[in-house]
Design goal:
- The protein is mainly alpha-helical.
- It has a domain of about 110 residues: Orthogonal Bundle (Arc Repressor Mutant, subunit A).
- The chain is about 65% helix and about 10% strand.
- It has a three-stranded antiparallel sheet.
- Strand 2 and strand 3 form a beta hairpin.
Length: about 160
């Protein structure tokens, strides 16, 4: 979004919010967009892996047996169902995941991380965590991070425990 469009969007929202509400909401949106864009750019440049792909591979790697039903995976990532399907198609094409039919439901599909996907994820993990710490976590003290976590839990209970 260019600067003029950003200012116009901010002005539209700001007229309906008081200054503290506007600063909090728009600060959250701006920060999220900037950090996600930077982390995505870093992962693509260093590992030819998008942030969304990294997230899907991470979720699969942590799942029992390294696999999740597509419906379960869709609930854990920040993508639309059609966006997830396209991403899974690309990851499967690249050999980073495999698709398996569900044994008990012929219509169900599992996405499973492949050995190549695990290797790609492990190669990207260290630099991604370093970038995450540099671009976001290092900006706050340990007490502030706990406070932020408490705020996020108040807004969206359950966090990443899904």
């Amino acid at each position: 979004m260019d600067t003029l469009a950003t200012k116009d969007a901010c002005a539209g929202v700001a007229q309906d919010l008081d200054p503290a509400e506007s600063a909090a909401w728009l600060g959250f949106l701006r920060t999220h967009a900037n950090i996600v864009r930077q982390l995505d750019t870093d992962l693509v440049a260093e590992h030819n892996l998008s942030l969304s792909s990294f997230e899907v591979l991470s979720r699969l790697a942590l799942a029992p047996g390294g696999r999740l039903r597509m419906t379960e995976l869709a609930h854990t990532v920040f993508l639309s169902p059609s966006g997830l399907t396209r991403l899974v198609d690309r990851l499967a094409h690249d050999g980073l995941i495999e698709r398996h039919h569900c044994e008990h439901d012929g219509r169900g599909l599992y996405a499973a991380i492949s050995p190549k996907g695990r290797a790609k994820l492990e190669a990207a993990r260290v630099s991604h965590l370093a970038q995450l710490r540099e671009r976001f976590l290092s900006k706050f003290s340990e007490d502030e991070l706990r406070q932020l976590a408490a705020f996020w839990e108040r807004v969206a209970p359950g966090g990443c425990a899904e």
